Each structure stands twice: as C-alpha cells, then as structure tokens.
Batch of 2 targets.
Target 1
Amino acid sequence: RKEVEQDPGPFNVPEGATVAFNCTYSNSASQSFFWYRQDCRKEPKLLMSVYSSGNEDGRFTAQLNRASQYISLLIRDSKLSDSATYLCVVPQGGKLIFGQGTELSVKP
Amino acid sequence: SQTIHQWPATLVQPVGSPLSLECTVEGTSNPNLYWYRQAAGRGLQLLFYSVGIGQISSEVPQNLSASRPQDRQFILSSKKLLLSDSGFYLCAWTLGNDYEQYFGPGTRLTVT
C-alpha cells in the first residue's frame, strides 16, 4: 500500500456541482492531515488542516476516518476558480508525505 | 509576515553543467527548510531537509547536494546535471514541530 494514495483524476465537473476527493494513508499513527491546492505551474498552497474528525471552511469540508485510514475533501457549489490539483498530505517521521494529487477541472 | 524567495524562476542548463538554486526565508528564525522536486505530472519528492545551520538530511541518493550556510538560506547544488534532474524545484519552510509547510514560488529547471 502506498504511503498516501489519492483518487486518480482528472475530475471534470460543471459549475455549481459538488465534488469529493478521497485519500488513503498507510500510517495508522498519523495524527494530522492536510489538503494543499496547486495551480498549474505554481507552488502548492495550504488549503485545509485536519486535526480531529474534520474541518469546514466555507464551501470546503475535510473529513477524517481514522478507522478506515482515509481523508476526504468535499467542495460544494464548485467555481471555475476551484480548477487546480488537490494534494493530500500526511506527516510521517517528521516529514510530509504528498499524494500524487487529483486534478479538478470546473467547466462553465 | 514571513516570505520565502527562490531564484531563478526558470533555468535551462546543458547536461553536465553545474547547478545552484537558492532559497531564503524572511520574517522568521530557525525555520525547518525543505527542498522538493516535482517531475512533470508527478507528485512532490522530498530531496533534503534541514533543522538548523549546517544540518542536512538527504532523502534520496542522487547527484544533488544541499547546504545551509545561514539560518534562513538553503542552497541546492549539483556538480554535473543529468537529463533526469529536470523538474520543478520547490523550497518550503515550517517552524518547529508544526507540520504546515509554506512553499516558495519554485524554480523550473530544464536540462537539455
């Protein structure tokens, strides 16, 4: 099992749609998790941190299922500006392990 | 507020040439510093990290090296570039045990 594994993309959705990404991790001892957003040819930027069962910030909701070792990111009412690659990140051994990323394309 | 700088933004170098990429952080002290590489269409690969001046940990054996001559300066080097060194190089920082990392704008390296 890969340390961090994400849904393969790309996800192509219309504006206003709700879309969800899943991420599984192998290290059951991990306590905190992150979602980063990376625009094309740009650096990743922190989107959300998840330290307990979940976190919500506006249209974005992150949920954590420790028993099944997966994290999800839900985006409601998708905007064109949400188009990007979303990276699931899990700390391990003092370092961050990045997933391969899931590409989202929101169409008008 | 903290800012992180990387230069150059883009670089085209021939195979066998040397490399030096620089990263500096402003507005903080004693950050943990990281070098990542992202190949086209791939995830981020951690190359080196440093918890203090002169302290470098290497994650992947290769023809790259890193140095931290000052608290807020992190340098990635190579004596002879390979074609496989092409990629997007990102520097990041964090404080102490905080896992939230902040990335610089990156250097896009093409080895020809």
Note: The two ends of chain B are 38 Å apart (CA to CA).
Target 2
Amino acid sequence: DIQMTQSPSTLSASVGDRVTITCRASQSISSWLAWYQQKPGKAPQLLIYQASSLESGVPSRFSGSGSGTEFALTISSLQPHDSATYYCQQYSSYSTFGGGTKVEIK
Amino acid sequence: QVQLVESGGGVVQPGRSLRLSCAASGFTFSSYAIHWVRQAPGKGLEWVSLISYDGTKKYYADSVKGRFTISRDNSKNTLSLQMSSLSAEDTAVYFCARSHSTAWDYFDYWGQGTLVTVSS
C-alpha cells in the first residue's frame, strides 16, 4: 500500500503570506496526485490534479508541484477564506489520502 | 450541473447492517467510476470503495473488505453501499465521489455526505 505523509499538520500564517504544504509518497506515484480543500461541515473540493494542473474555477494563487515521491501545494498570497484543511491524494495505485494540513489565519 | 446526493445514514447498533445510497444527476452516470470515501469525526479522509463505470470491477479498503458491498444501477443513476457487521470504528460521514474517468482517477465531484453512527 502507498502511504502519504503530509506536513505540517497545522500551520498558522498571516493574510498575504506565501504558504507551502508538502506531501510525500512512500513510493513513486509519478504525477498521480491531487489536492483538495475542505472546510468544516463541507465536502472536499478539488484544487489541483495530476500534481500541477489547476482545476477550473480555482484561484490562480493555488499551485502544485512535484513528481515521484515529493509534492507541494503552494498558496502564493493567503486569503482569509483559505482557512481550511488541505489533503493530498494519490491515485497511482488504489487511492490514499494524506493526513491533512489545517491552515489557520493569524 | 453535476450532483451527488447521499442518503441512508443514521444511528445503528454494533453488529447490524445499513445501506447507503447515492443519487447522481447532471452527467452520464454510466460513463464514470464512483467511489465511497469516509471521514470519522474530527479525522481525515479514508477511501472506502470503488466501482467501475459498468459495475464489473469493485475494490475495497482492507478495513471494510468482506463487510461492505458496493453496487450501482446505471438505469436509475444510483450507487449503493451495503454495510454489515458494523462497529464503532465505522462511525463516519460517508461521501460518494465521482472519479474523473472510468476507473482510478482523482475525484472531481463529491456529495455532501451522510452520517453513520454506530452505537448501542
């Protein structure tokens, strides 16, 4: 089974900050990685697929990078409504989610 | 627009069974694989099961294998999850989610979820 490890588990940043969340796969998954945003009481929403492709309608301040085993989600300028939990997901072999990163606004 | 609406959640006693449903609309249901994903209270996301677009291939997480059965009715645009031998560890919000393609892929649309509580 492929394990996905996200870090940090929580982060606190100010509006306008550049924020980066990392995700590591236990084995190579090529670029078969997606990122989701989830707000309390809501379903997750797709942000990024195939490691770096921005889903339609998602603000361009979100970007994804990486391949193989190391990936990152970057928010270029944090906005108040970006407060949420972010999950990575591999879909190379079955499907596994990372543990999540809770982003808080200072 | 694409819609997925789960139903069937509720409170069930340990060891009992429950059947969840997911009603799909706004897209050609028979062209997409569909997943179940769950989230225990205050926890992260856990993939549960996948059924291929035509229902011929089914996959399960080890945690539910042998206890849960996924099925679909393409004539009625509905997905089901039959859950048996439930335990407290199965307490979670259950989401159905559309795979972007006919098989393993990212999840491009999600339902709002239905809460299953296993408790005596």
Note: The interface with chain B takes residues 34, 36, 38, 42-46, 49-50, 55, 87, 89, 91, 93-100 of chain A (CB under 8 Å).
